[in-house]
Amino acid sequence: MQVQCVFARVTRTIKVYRFIWGGNFANSRLGKGIWLTPGRHIHIKPFYHMGKDGYMLHVSGHGSKTYYARTNSTSWFKY
Fold first, then answer.
1. How far, CA to CA in Å, does 6 sit from each of 3, 24, 48?
2. Quick check: 44 and 5 in contact, CB under 8 A?
3. Which helix (H) or strand (E) element contains residue 18?
4. Which end of the chain is more exposed for a tag (fewer CB within 10 A), N or C?
5. How far, rounded to the nearest angstrom, does the alpha carbon of residue 66 sit from its chain's CA centroid?
6. Tens-place pLDDT, residues 34-73
7. Sequence spans of domains, the chain
8. Closest by alpha carbon to 52, among 31, 77, 74, 27?
9. For 10-28, how does the pLDDT look when each residue is reduced to its tens digit (9 = 90+)?
């Protein structure tokens, strides 16, 4: 089953990190982070790979950069 990217709204402040692609997720790294504040609109997709769960994000105003929320909690956004 393929999970699609959906539109969401941030409900509490969270720091997310720039995802820098490597050969695979296990040996890639996270770059400089940005803070998302309540009311911000994002595109979001649940993500899990090799023990690293969280959410992959596309944040409006940050071009085609992909960000990663290092949490599997859904308490910081609403669909």
1. 9, 24, 16
2. yes
3. strand 14-20
4. N
5. 7
6. 999 999 999 988 776 656 678 888 888 787 788 888 887 8
7. 6-78
8. 27
9. 999 999 988 776 666 666 6
Q: How far is CA 35 from CA 1, 8, 15, 50, in A?
A: 31, 16, 4, 25
Q: Please report, in angstroms and rounded to a whole number, the separation of the first and last CA atoms in the chain.
A: 20
Distance between CA atoms of residues 1 and 68, nearest Å:
21
Amino acid at 62: H
Q: What are phi and psi of 51, to 5 degrees?
A: 85, 0
Residue 73: name the closest of 39, 32, 44 by CA: 44
